[in-house]
Every structure is written in structure tokens, then in C-alpha cells.
């Protein structure tokens, strides 16, 4: 069976933190522009604009996404947003835990053990539980 990827276009908001103007004063003028448009723009510190992200999904994954969207009455974009948000939060927590464990080893608070020894201990504990 041929593997084909499909494109799933997901709109999202991109927050732009840069000011959208440098100056609205004419050279030598001390007065800013009086136009309503310029006043609205000048008052803006943040601008949000709609952006599109293209995701390449396997057909099976896209089908599962569409089925879940239909059964939950939610938009596929919302489901993907929730899934990515949860995944990134979990990944951040794992990264913090790994950094903390590495710091513990580096500082000498804990001593590393050999992987084979660790598995041997686990096997022994499992066997002991079966016997009990």
C-alpha cells in the first residue's frame, strides 16, 4: 500500500511584538499625524494576524482526526491545538526533570548506577514478588 501524506491547513493567530511604525512625524514637524488611521495604528503595541500552518499527516492520522472531530463536535484545528499544547507542556516537564536529575548527578547528590545492574535488580524484584 502506497504511503501518501495529505496537507491539513490549520489557521492560527501569530502575535507580532514589534511596533508597526517608526515615526509618523514629518521631518522638522513636532505634530503627529491627525488621521484616524494613524491614531489607531500609533496606539497599537501588538498586532495579531492570521497565519496558516501546513501539517503533513498520514492518511490514517487525518482520518482519525476527522472522526474524532465529528464525534466530539469540535473543529479539527481545536483538537490539534489542544493536542500540541498538551504535548509541549509534557515535553517541558520531562525536560525540567531530566535537567534536575542531571544536576543531581553532577553535584554528587546521587550516584549513577550501571544499566545492567539496574535491570538485574528489577528482574530480581519481579521474581521475588512472584514467589511471595
Please explain how this structure is put together.
A two-stranded antiparallel sheet has the order 1-2. 54% of the residues lie in helices and 17% in strands. By secondary structure, it is of the alpha+beta class. The protein is elongated and about 50 Å long. It has one domain (6-115). Mean pLDDT is 75; it is low at 1-6 and 11-33.
What Rg do the Cα atoms give? 28 Å
Q: State the helicity in percent bands.
A: 40-55%
Widest sheet: strand ordering: 1-2
Q: Total helix count?
A: 4
| Total beta strand runs | 2
- What's the end-to-end separation, in Å? 50 Å
Number of domains: 1
Query: Would you tell me the structural class of the helices and strands?
Result: alpha+beta
Uncertain ranges? 1-6, 11-33
What would the keywords be for this entry?
alpha+beta; 132 residues; two-stranded antiparallel ribbon; disordered N terminus; elongated
Topology:
Elements: E1 6-16, H1 36-43, E2 47-57, H2 59-72, H3 76-107, H4 115-131
Antiparallel strand pairs: 1-2
In short, what is this structure?
By secondary structure, this protein is α+β, with helices and mostly antiparallel strands.
Amino acid at each position: 500500500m502506497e504511503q501518501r501524506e495529505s496537507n491539513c491547513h490549520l489557521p492560527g493567530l501569530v502575535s507580532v511584538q514589534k511596533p508597526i511604525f517608526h515615526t509618523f512625524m514629518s521631518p522638522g514637524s513636532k505634530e503627529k499625524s491627525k488621521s484616524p488611521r494613524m491614531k489607531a495604528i500609533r496606539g497599537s503595541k501588538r498586532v495579531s494576524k492570521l497565519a496558516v500552518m501546513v501539517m503533513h499527516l498520514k492518511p490514517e492520522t487525518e482520518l482519525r482526526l476527522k472522526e474524532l472531530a465529528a464525534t466530539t463536535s469540535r473543529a479539527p484545528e481545536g483538537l490539534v491545538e489542544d493536542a500540541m499544547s498538551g504535548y509541549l507542556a509534557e515535553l517541558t516537564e520531562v525536560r525540567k526533570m531530566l535537567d534536575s536529575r542531571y544536576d543531581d548527578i553532577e553535584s554528587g547528590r546521587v550516584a549513577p548506577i550501571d544499566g545492567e545492574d539496574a535491570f538485574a535488580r528489577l528482574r530480581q524484584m519481579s521474581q521475588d514478588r512472584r514467589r511471595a
